[in-house]
Design goal:
With about 160 residues, the chain is of the alpha+beta class. About 40% of the residues lie in helices and about 20% in strands. Keywords: Cell membrane, Endoplasmic reticulum, ER-Golgi transport, Golgi apparatus, Membrane, Postsynaptic cell membrane, Synapse, Transport.
């Protein structure tokens, strides 16, 4: 069972204090701190957990493409549950981009294509990037964060629904 994470103005809350040591009740009691952005979410996965899940998904993807009654199936494009949808976009070179989203979230297909564009522009064109290695590029991180914020602001029934 995963833990629920609370964040106030981007700072993760642990008990009564934020990650940067501020008292939550004092912070909320100060009118100068408003408006306040409060978000609930899951805890962040470690690198090992991400690798384990990616490996597991890759295996399911391969099995799905082999078991599909559709000749030449490309594998799992979307897996839907009551609480989330897993969307997968596989490039012609076999790289997979996976997004977990709220089941009501719209525009995930365009988000996946935007992520591929960002990957192409800021990772593949980077002479210091090696394929199949973690991407360590500030411009990639900034543009990915911006794309995710735009998708989040579009809301559950935004463009493309």
């Amino acid at each position: 069972v995963g833990h629920v994470v609370l964040a106030i103005n981007g700072a993760e809350v642990n008990g009564r204090f934020t990650a940067d040591g501020k008292d939550v009740l004092e912070f909320l009691g100060n009118p100068a701190n408003y408006p306040v952005s409060i978000r609930f979410g899951r805890h962040r996965l470690s690198s090992n957990e991400k690798l384990m899940l990616a490996s597991m998904f890759h295996s399911l993807f391969a099995i799905g493409s082999q078991l599909s009654p559709e000749v030449g199936s490309s594998g799992i494009e979307m897996l839907e549950t009551d609480t989330f949808k897993l969307h997968c976009f596989q490039t012609l070179t076999g790289i997979k981009f996976v997004v977990l989203a709220d089941p009501r979230q719209a525009g995930i297909d365009s988000l996946l294509r935007k992520i591929y564009e960002i990957y192409s522009d800021f990772a593949l064109k980077n002479p210091f990037y090696s394929l199949e290695m973690p991407i360590r590029c500030e411009l990639f991180d900034q543009n990915l964060k911006l794309a995710l914020e735009v998708a989040e602001k579009a809301g559950p029934f935004g463009p493309g629904s």
